[in-house]
Amino acid sequence: MIAVETEVKFRVTDAEDLSRRLKESGFHCETPRAFESNTLYDTADRMMRSRTEILRIRSYAGRTVLTHKRPPESGPGEDRHKHRIETETAVADGTALAEVFRSLGLAPAFRYEKWRSEWSDGNGHCVVDETPIGSFAELEGEPEWIDRVAAALGVAPNDYITASYGRLFEQWRAENNSTASDLTFEAVHASAAAH
Q: What is the DSSP string of 132-187?
């Protein structure tokens, strides 16, 4: 499936309060809290990263999905919202696909994980992510819907985040002088314990 994905992230300081506000705004929980593991693949010279593209294998809630994201060919990749062309398909065997990638010269470039729950109001989605560097939520839908729902949730446009988890992790590493190379609970915990 190919689609234009439009989204924003925002920091979550109180997950219970956010859940209450989502319910009050007409959302229902589609996927209860489940562990998610992601591996981004790239060439040795980081060709995909230089083009602001990602190639990802995600395992989540008993499913494995292959996703490719790239900036749109026309229009901004980021304004107040983040816009990406997203091509996604279910995969029967993520380990086999990873082996195909390796044989094609692609290698794991970055791993990140989180606990995620998914909410929907029938028009768009809100996912709540508990990551090793804090909790975030993402609103994904039409720009007008994002702005309307964000306002209902008490999120101001200047609280919108368009950075990827990889970029947020780089910022966090710099701020915390961390040696962690992946955004995994084990790597972040080991880096914090070493300081």
A: TTEEEEEEES-HHHHHHHHHHTT--GGG-B---HHHHHHHHHHHHT----SB-HHH
